[in-house]
Write a structure and sequence with these properties.
Oligomer: single chain
Number of helices: 8
Radius of gyration: 23 Å
Helix content: 40-55%
Length: 202
Amino acid sequence: MARGDSLVRQLKLMERLLGRGELDVDGTARDLGASRRTVYRDLQVLSRFGVPIYQEADGRRSRWRVLSTYKSRLRLTLTFGEALALLAARGAFASARDGMLGPSFAAALDKVQATLPPPLVDRLDRARRWLSATTGPERAGQNDATVLMTLAHAIEAQETIRLAYRKPGERRHAERLVDPYHLHVQSGALYLVGFCHKRSGL
């Protein structure tokens, strides 16, 4: 079965749990065209991702419920790239000279992070070691989000990247192999710190 089908089922289970507060495994399995075992497995996945659900015996039927306190919490879904953008913005605000908005932004981001799935929170905690941002003079930068995500995934996987490097003032570029270590955002421009194989140095 395709991975996307599992995700769709799990989202439907979440909708039922949040809308009704409970679900019946047998009835849900019939409605979704899935087996009881598949529904149980999907519920276990939701539980591992931090959804506070629990099972109750209802005669011979199995019924699952979600804690009422969870339904009142803010529920937010972010991609890893969106979460990285918030993390970088937090760093930029913290580095601002006046620091007026820094504490407030940090507190707001902490509240957002509290609503995210634990696996995404773990990735963000690790990303704090290799992502930084500061404010400064406005300058032209690379605004292609795919570049940021390619570098982010390479840092996480400890992979070597192949890039086209052009020195300031030169028209031609040269191919370089680089082990990426750190990303820094400065006023919209993205800077990469890494080990260059050709230069044998940072």
